[in-house]
Design brief:
The protein has about 800 residues and is mostly helical. Helix content is about 75%, strand content about 0%. The chain is built from 35 helices and no strands. Helix 4 runs antiparallel to helix 14. It is globular and about 95 Å long. It starts with a helix and ends with a helix. The relative contact order is 0.07.
Amino acid sequence: MPSRRYYLRSLTAPDTLDQATLLLLGFMLAFAVFAFGAVEAWSQLVLLGMATMLIGLTIVRPLVDPGFKPRGGLIALPLIGSIGLMLVQITAGLSVANYETVHCLRLAWLALCVLVSVASFVRSRQQLESLLSVVFLIGCLQSLLCIAQVVTGADKLYWTVDAGSGGMLTAGSFVNHSHFSQFVNLTIGAGIALLLVRVRCDQRSGSGDLSQSANSPKASFRRHGAILAGLAVCVLGVCLSLSRNGILSLSVAAFVVGGAMALQKRLAWQGWLLALVPALVFGLLLFFGFDVFYDRLASLDEAAHYADRWELTRTSFVAGSDYWLTGAGLGCYHLIYPAYDTTGSAAVARYADNDFAQLFVEAGAIGMLLLFATLAIVGWHSLRAFDRSTSAADAVFGLVLGLVAVSIHSFTDFGQHIPAVFMMTMVVLGCVAAVPHFESSNQSRRVEPNQQLAKSSQMPRLVALGAVAVVVPIGVWAIHGAAVHYQAEQWWNATLVADSDLQRRNWAGDDRDYAELLTLAENAIVWQPDHVEYRYWINYYRWMSLVRDGSGPLVAAHDAVDWTPILAQLADELASIRQDCPPYHAPYVLEARLRGQMGEDDAAGELYARGAQLGRSDAQARFALGDWAARRNQPDVARHELAAAVMLDGSYFGRAVELMVNVLDDITAARDLAGTQSDRIRTLIEVLKKRPDQADLVTELEQSFEQQLVELARQGEASASQLMLLASQAADRGDHAESIAHYRKALATDYNRLEWRLALAEQLKAAGDYVAALREVRICLRLRANNATARKLADELALLIEPE
């Protein structure tokens, strides 16, 4: 019977440890990808736990295998440097939000664990093939999921999870198709690397004579057909994802790397099997619908698709210039950028859509130097591999193809902020760094003078024990931090649900609703007390618990209460938030409102101005300043800020016009703001009707407005809502024929609008066409069988038709 020592030796044998490392690494990658890219706190917690196990397995291995040496080499130095930079940002107060930088620090630890483990694991061609096979398989499965989504027209992740996209999904288990294409492009590089390794092995196994059956095209295709099919599936997945930048970056990378291989004459006739891949993909695209793919690529020449993106990049570099040396703190981009935003978009840009621009904002010139150092080290390792005529060296061409594609794509997207994508990048970097060491490590093993002496050496064990003393505390810290982040996120997600429910009711909740909302938010802050956004929102919720639906300054039932101490406490807490994170604009605006309520006009005015300056892309901040300026007789400021708010968010138009007409008494500015948009003109008319002195202008605008709508309807360019307005106006005049015509045109664009169809039936009844009216009512009853209005109208029409 085998002894316990036998089992221990079996478990600690090098082959067993290699298999365990490969299994854990493969499971981590698969989990990160199929858990929606690992963008949520729970999945990051799981990954950090597995990453700590992985790096632990790597650094402890010399205790049982003295011949094994963990290594990351030069390739890990820039990443270690970025970790050092984050530590400086946190400890020296250079980060505007430490909690964000600490979160990035945990993710950097995850990346370092993967990079060092891969670079240490890959020590031979066989191990390289094994890892490339696992990576490529994951990419193929992800691409098959994308293809299945396209075939079935899926609008949910895994056909069950709502991704909030509102349309067909084409990104596998990712929410964003650009992130999907970056990940798959890396796995395509791994697949090509695997093919090149095996093709070179074929060349060495025979003379290369095509007459020999072992090296014939038929035999080569049989051996490598599965890889070629997998590559075709992956490329097809990128194409069907409709990621223009993913397709373009892959094409450019293939051209560059293919040209380099041709120049070095590294493509034997077997290597040209790769030419079958685009032919196969083209055939599959014809099957799945080439017209959709072509239309998507054709939009590459439309400048509108890229104008905002390039403006975002340009202004990001402008923002970074104010933090040019050490950056504003990793993860803090969304707190910094609103002050520089000139895109005219109301959405807060959480990412720069350009990894390089965002790195400059968050890490400054030091971060950019670390990035350039990484690129230089990758280039150096690649050149060393290219100089060697080995099968493993050929793999670097494929790996570099994936890196080039991702680097190009990173100019127009933020994929490297997604854990699944940057983990795959670390895997590829680790392989590139490991390949040049193959021959030297093999030679050192062959010339080992005394294997027993190596086994008895205590140095590897001492180094391993020292590494354990460093790694274990870091791993525990990272896992604990991720667990805290997970708890905070869970409570905050519940808070957002309660927030959405109150927003749907226009914040008109009772004491119980607000107590629940505040309790949930407080629990999130208990777990993450330094989170400035959580702290702002809980004070906003406290304020809303006082104003409720916004109909008055405070809850009417508590008018007898002296609110000044409560308002002062809220204002002071908001002041502490903006002191902790000066670029964050939201606390300025709410504090200004509270200071104004307390009669501190000078302080309120300064806060409103600063909030609008820092939040130039926030419509609420711009409108708040415009409102304040209008009521303080500052017309120039008011007009400018109100117009900016409306440009960012059209829903502010009604309130902006009210201020311009009734507070500023500036009718000209109100008309300019309305422009030629019919819905805005209609809103302006309704506001002016409340001013008896503007009766003539109202009449003029109404006539002009109706003429404009009639002309749009005549040209077939009127929207459904505009057609409905024309129909209503014609009905008011008693022109039933014109009203019916407009109603029918509106319903042609939206068949299921019950209220429109009932209005059409009423007009048909008024025109005496009872049969047609009853037909419309029956359609209404099919749409909603229990509608009382439709049933009543149907009974009336039946009585009118019966005598005939």
